Amino acid sequence: MGHGPSAKNVARFARMFSAMGTEARLRVIRLLLAAHPQGIVASEIAEELGLPNSTLSHHLDKLKNHNLVNVRREGTFLWYTANDEVLQELVNFLYKECCTRGGAVRLQTVLRIAK
């Protein structure tokens, strides 16, 4: 039974998917990916998504707590970036489970979508 990810990693991935499991947080991730690699400041995220600062702060904290986003301070600004390494782990997990292990999704379909 050593073919797939460990139970610990599956639980970790489930928590990450859960953290992204709201419309607002998924929109934040999409925006950060679009701004990759330089990132975007919190105030611009709030403006772009039409979210109050307090609400955005809650969503960013949730994503940060699950290592899905990185934050760096430059002066008085907080810059957020997508954690591309962790997001790649999630994509790899889905790819291995869906496209190679059980073959539920054909690789050609994934490649066509990626283009």
Descriptive report:
The protein is of the alpha+beta class and 115 residues long. The chain has a domain at 7-83: Arc Repressor Mutant, subunit A. It has 6 helices and 3 strands, in the order ααβααββαα. The chain has helices at 7-19, 23-34, 42-49, 53-65, 84-101, 107-114; strands at 40-41, 69-74, 77-82. Strand 2 and strand 3 form a beta hairpin. The longest helix is centred in the C-terminal third of the chain and has 18 residues, at 84-101. The model has no long low-confidence stretch (mean pLDDT 86).
Radius of gyration: 16 Å
- Share of helix, binned: 55-70%
Q: Report the oligomer.
A: single chain
Provide mean pLDDT, rounded: 86
Which fold name fills CATH's third level, the topology of the domain at 7-83?
A: Arc Repressor Mutant, subunit A
Gross morphology: elongated
Distance between the termini: 34 Å
Strands of the biggest beta sheet: in what spatial order? 1-3-2
The tally of beta strands, per DSSP, is 3
In short:
The protein is about 65% helix and about 10% strand. The protein has 6 helices and 3 strands.
Entry keywords:
elongated; 115 residues; alpha+beta; 63% helix; 6 helices; 12% strand; Arc Repressor Mutant, subunit A; 3 strands; 3-stranded antiparallel sheet
Q: In terms of topology, how is this protein built?
A:
Blueprint: H1 7-19, H2 23-34, E1 40-41, H3 42-49, H4 53-65, E2 69-74, E3 77-82, H5 84-101, H6 107-114
Antiparallel strand pairs: 1-3, 2-3
